[in-house]
Amino acid sequence: MAGGEIWLDPDRARRGGADLTLSGKAMSAARRETGDPIATASAQRPWGRDDIGAAFDKHYQGYAETLLRAWEQLGRSLEVLGSDVVRSVAATVETDLSNARDLGKIPQQGHNPRRPWR
């Protein structure tokens, strides 16, 4: 934004939105491919159920669940953000074109900027 104006390169913004969506899908796929096996293995408590295993489990499970949940939410959020960007660009371009058409319909009044309006 410079001088109170916003300049938008719609093609570039659309590509950016599409890239965000693809990044989100890749993040979600990585979460499923890597995170699901971690969650499955953790549920089996391979560290054991003795006192040492229980102490490990007490600290590990909370962090693991938080990380896996955040990883999943990040992927979804990127996908949604990307589609929102693309939709926003389309709406902005349509609004701009509509306003330009409306401005073109205003008849010329022969206004001289050096004379005040009457």
Provide structural commentary.
This protein has helices at 10-43, 51-104. The relative contact order is 0.15. The mean pLDDT is 90. With 118 residues, it is mainly α. α1 runs antiparallel to α2 (51-104). Helix content is 75%, strand content 0%. It is built from two helices and no strands. It has a domain at 11-92.
Rg to the nearest angstrom?
A: 27 Å
Strand content: under 5%
- Total DSSP E strands: 0
User: Would you tell me the structural class of the helices and strands?
Assistant: mainly alpha
Q: Helical residue percent?
A: over 70%
Main sheet record = none
Give the oligomer, counting copies of the same chain as homo and different chains as hetero. single chain
How many alpha or pi helices?
A: 2
Contiguous low-pLDDT stretches (5 residues minimum) are none
Q: H/E element string? A: HH
Shape descriptor reads rod-shaped
Q: Which whole number gives the mean pLDDT? A: 90
Instruction: Report, as a whole number of angstroms, the end-to-end distance.
Output: 35 Å
Summarize the structure.
With 118 residues, the protein is mainly α.
